[in-house]
Amino acid sequence: xxxxxxxxxxxxxxxxxxxxxxxxxxxxxxxxxxxxxxxxxxxxxxxxxxxxxxxxxxxxxxxxxxxxxxxxxxxxxxxxxxxxxxxxxxxxxxxxxxxxxxxxxxxxxxxxxxxxxxxxxxxxxxxxxxxxxxxxxxxxxxxxxxxxxxxxxxxxxxxxxxxxxxxxxxxxxxxxxxxxxxxxxxxxxxxxxxxxxxxxxxxxxxxxxxxxxxxxxxxxxxxxxxxxxxxxxxxxxxxxxxxxxxxxxxxxxxxxxxxxxxxxxxxxxxxxxxxxxxxxxxxxxxxxxxxxxxxxxxxxxxxxxxxxxxxxxxxxxxxxxxxxxxxxxxxxxxxxxxxxxxxxxxxxxxxxxxxxxxxxxxxxxxxxxxxxxxxxxxxxxxxxxxxxxxxxxxxxxxxxxxxxxxxxxxxxxxxxxxxxxxxxxxxxxxxxxxxxxxxxxxxx
Length: 444
Ligand SMILES: NC(=O)c1ccc[n+]([C@@H]2O[C@H](COP(=O)([O-])OP(=O)(O)OC[C@H]3O[C@@H](n4cnc5c(N)ncnc54)[C@H](O)[C@@H]3O)[C@@H](O)[C@H]2O)c1
Hints:
Layout: E1 15-21, H1 25-38, H2 48-51, H3 67-70, E2 79-84, H4 91-98, H5 103-107, H6 111-115, H7 143-160, E3 163-170, H8 187-195, H9 203-213, E4 218-220, H10 230-239, E5 242-244, H11 252-265, E6 269-279, H12 282-287, H13 290-308, H14 314-317, E7 321-328, E8 337-345, E9 351-359, H15 362-382, E10 387-388, H16 411-425
Parallel strand pairs: 1-2, 1-3, 3-4, 4-5, 5-10, 6-7
Antiparallel strand pairs: 6-8, 8-9
Bound molecules: nicotinamide-adenine-dinucleotide.
């Protein structure tokens, strides 16, 4: 029984255009996967929007519909795809180049569909992604002009494909590290900086700006500063647009944000956490550049400090040594191997160790996240939730939050936050797990 008032949500009617910035491994694995699912050739494994259920009401009520049946999400058959990339390869060529999906089983059967997705010229500048070259780029005198050209692309795509709504997901490379500066503080400073080609305005910011100006929600899957700046956050609130990021939480960090809350829950100490990776895809090559790695490193390092709270537990986490490495190793391609060595200590300070060796597939883990983010950001927009979507921090390594808040990194707190937000949208009570009502002492 619903106890609240459902939030008004515009229906998910008509086509939803999903524009990916970047048409590399993650984007093509996502797009191809959706098409295979639509044709009944694959299952949407890893996608909460497609496979997840949501418990409603008391445990005795037995109500647990699929999320997509509880809340109005766009249907996979209504998705249309577009992309920008400085590399001119269409989605078919890119799929083959990236080598994530099996050529014969998963790429050739949808060859024509993939060939139909050709990237628009990118707003690209090699100064921000050093290990990448591409000829499919926009030429303009200023960054402001580039942003205007992106805005035109967005309008043209919407008209050409007769879309009812759009959503943009950054699936492009990790840019060099940029610290927030004066140009990012206000919209006026940001627009002036675009006009004067200020170095602190990265291409990813131009896409975010263009999206917000065109009324399109924007999710950032890389650790780039991008829309995590006051100027764009304010613009998003003023225009009523959903934004969020940063950096898809897929492999090693997902594991880290499950294990570290476990140590804290049991009051076990952590002396050191050494994480290393070998990765051989284009992302790995880009991250081999120290300036791009620095952006990723910041994103990966932050989680332990926020979860373990060494200032509250100095005896347990005050001297924690945390190290993260990513090594480019071509033979593995997209199949990343992530090792974690964790030195923990228990009763009377006795040391113990945990070793994790995650032999994962980077884009296989990331693709369902792109789908969920596209659908949930579209939902947020239809429900008029503007600005930062912290309830979607479940998907991000380095979640954007309102000023003054520390991010919640614990995967299961994030999941609870996400599901309670869906319940709130649907007019159902939040589930607190208090549960006293099942016992005599809880009855009044
Ligand atoms: N796969 C994962 O598990 C995972 C997890 C977290 C974050 N990410 C991030 O997702 C992003 C994509 O990863 P990937 O494996 O697909 O990388 P990729 O190198 O295969 O694809 C990225 C694409 O972005 C394009 N690109 C670069 N700058 C661009 C610009 N300015 N405009 C448009 N396109 C641009 C590149 O040409 C490339 O084709 C990376 O930033 C990566 O760090 C991936």
